[in-house]
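Hi Y.,

Following your request, here is the sequence exactly as I used it, all 623 residues.
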Amino acid sequence: MGMRAERTGRGARAGQTDLPKKKPALKKVWPQVRALIVPRIGLLLAGMALMVVNRVAGLALPFLSKPLLDKVLSPLHPHPEWLPRIIAIVFGAMLIQAITSFSLTQLLSKAGQRLIAEMRRQVQRHVGLLSVAYYDENRTGQLVSRIMTDVEGVRNLVGTGLVDFVGGLFTAVLAFLYLMHLSVSVTLTVFAVMGVFVFVLQYAFKTIRPIFRERGKINAEVTGRLTESLGGVRVIKGYHAEEREAHVFSEGVDRLLANVMKTLTMTSVLGSASTTVLGLVSGLVMWFGGHSVLNHTWTVGDYFSYNMFLAFMIAPVFQVVNIGTQLTEAFAGLDRTNEIMSELEENQSPGRTVKMPPIEGKIRFDDVEFAYTPEKPVLHGIGFEARPGTVTALVGSSGSGKSTIISLVCAFHTPSKGAVLVDDIDLATVDLNTFRSQLGVVLQDSFLFDGSIRENIMFSRPEATEEQFLFASRTARVDEFAERFPDAYETIVGERGVKLSGGQRQRLSIARALLAEPRILILDEATSSLDSESEAMIQTGLKELMQGRTTFVIAHRLSTIRRADQILVVEGGLIVERGNHAELFAMGGRYYDLYMRQHGLEANLFLAPGEGDVVPAEDAETL
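Below is the corresponding structure, written out as tokens. Let me know if you'd prefer a different format.
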């Protein structure tokens, strides 16, 4: 059984990135926001300059409405000669707006998209460097959502969102100053009403942000379940569970819908409040403005100009509602991105400073204990030594701790107590890059990428020559099926190798390990998906692969490990027996019991010539 099976049932470790219930503070993500903005400050300043020109040009129309009405169209002293000049200025201003708007989009929107791509690369790289334990505790779909979705909102920080936000405030300030010039009393009255609305906005943003954050969590969960369902479609169909999965997905979609409804409710409230404020402000201006015109303190041009500038002050406020929501969503995404980026990389431990030299292959477990969670220890005082160039086999019932021992050899985890030493160097102190480059792994679950046969084999050693590639393929008997395909080694294997049989996938995995030429080799049920004939052929390749390498083998088919130099029988996290096949068989203990149960009890036994051990007759040819 694979490593994941032995971890079933353990709780989340300390520091797991479950989303907190409390509302995140802006200061929590401010360092990350600053890190995004500071390197692009020149770009943002250029955007701000374009924005200023754009917004000033946009004020030409309301500013020129007063001379148009009071001078050009005046019934008493009209000046028609001013009309072409005003039209030219308005047209020029609109042209400047069009050019600056296009430039802003090209400059900032594309910069925002480049930032998203860069952040996705950073997050994916960081996630790839996290420990196996982190992957055990987080669903694949959730990680995909964090990499692809959570960073989307940052375009509003470096893209047009932030500049539009500042631009809206800039326009509102200019309009406010002009309105104050026309009438201080009317403007202060209007501004007081707007101040109440701004207070409502501030409260609304504080309320919406946690909702957006929760949406990111729900979306990750729904995406995670969907990814699992699509990946396990054969199991789902095999158990006629399509409707159950549809129900589970539907529940997730309903949760997401409920969250969206909350945000829609809040934005609807804001929309209604803004409409009410607009109506109230319009009424106030009509009342005061109408009286001012009738009392001849304002001209008709003043009244229309005031209304147009008021629109230019109010419109940015409504724009702030929309952009503010986007910025709020961006901060929520940054919260989640910051959580995952703050996870310590697997190789970042201060103690991992030793560069592993070329490995000879001596591996020693020194009184090792291990627990995924403190209340559920998995290994108890494991101690053994594997000499260079030998084969150590691990046998025992499912969940006994075999794969956990293998994971410690691979440095996927570190012992809770004791030490795992390679050539007398504690693996807990080793730079993992220098160690794992000398490690080869063939797992029970033969994972393949959706690429060609060649790409999957070359994955372990991209710089390998054609001769080395072909040698590994032939040794693992990949050539026997690959060369029958029309595209031979360029044949696409499909997602997780779905177009190949289980045995073919395992042969590919073995070829991949062969090509890597590792010093330490891990075979976790490496031949479990092969039929007897294929396994017999593969054993020749594996025998060559294991020559001179320290090899660890997990196998439930005990006939595959009889020639191991030492066999460790693991039960309940303890090594209960150790020795070679003949010694353990002669002891008549747990190994003998496992062996006899697997081979039909004591029926049809004979003595293997020259080996002195009793084996079932059907296995005689493999001895």
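The two ends are 25 Å apart (CA to CA).

Thanks again,
Q.
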